[in-house]
Amino acid sequence: MTCKLYSILTVGLLLSTSLFAMPKPNQPKSGPARSIQTAPSTKFYEVRIYHPTPGKYAEIVDRFRQYTTKIFEKHGMENIGYWTPTDTTNKELIYILAYPSREARDASWKAFGSDPEWKAVVAKTEANGKLVDHVDQIFMTESDISPKLKLSQKSPERTFELRTYTCTPGKLPNLLSRFRDHTIKLFSKHGMTNVAYWVTQEKDPAVQSKLVYILAHPSEAEGKAHFEEFRKDPKWIAVKDASEKEAGGSLTTKVESIYMKPTDYSPIK
Q1: Which residues contact 148 (CB under 8 A, 6 or more apart)?
Q2: Which of 153, 163, 173, 218 is in the most buried spot, having the most CB atoms within 10 Å?
Q3: Is the pTM of this model over 0.70?
Q4: Digit-coded pLDDT (tens) for 126-158
C-alpha cells in the first residue's frame, strides 16, 4: 500500500512539474527572435509612362487631374501614385495602377476604352491634336520583400525615387536576398523611406524579371546625400563584397533612377 501511494505521489509530482515547465499559449519560445514575413499582395501592378506630344505636357497632366483618374476608378482600377520628373526637361507623366489580377487589368482597360464618357473627354481635349505621343508600360507583382504599400500623404510633401535594377543573368534571387537581409534596413538607417518593391512580369518568359522599387526622401538633394552615406557605410561595403563573392560577381548590370515629384492629385505624396 505504501509503495502504491508513493508511486501515485511521484507521478503527480512529475506531472505538475512538467505542467509548470510548459510554455503558456502566448508565451514565446526561447531562442533568437525571428521576424514574421507577411505574404505579398496578390494585386497586379502597372507602371505607365506617358510621353506627351510636343507642347502638350501640361494638357495631359491636367486631363488626368480633371477626368482620367475618376474614370479609371469607375472601371475598377486603383490609382496608386502620379508623378512628374524633378528634371523639368524630362517631359513625362509617370503613374502606377493596381488591379485584382492581369485578367481584371485587361477587362478594365477594354471597358475604359469603349466608355462613352472617356470618348467624349478625348474628343474635347484633343480637338487641337493628340496629347500623347507614346506610352511605356511595365507590368509587375509585389515582391515578398516589400513593406505594405500605404497610400499616405505626408507634410511637407516628399520627393520620390523610382529605381529599376537589371540583374546579372540568374542573380535576381541573390539580389532579393541581399535586399531582404540587409539593404532595406540600411536604407532606413540612412533616412530613406521604403515605399514598395516589385518584380517585373516580362512578356518573354526567357527574359529575367527586374527589381523595381520606390523610395521617398525629404528632397532630391537629401536623397542623393543619403545614398552617398549609404554607399560609404562599412556595413554596406561588407555586405556588398560578401554577396558578390558568393554569387561570383556583380548582381546587377544596370541601375536606373528617376527622381519624381507627386502631382497634386496623387494618392501618394
Answers
A1: 38, 41
A2: 218
A3: yes
A4: 999 999 999 999 999 999 999 999 898 888 899
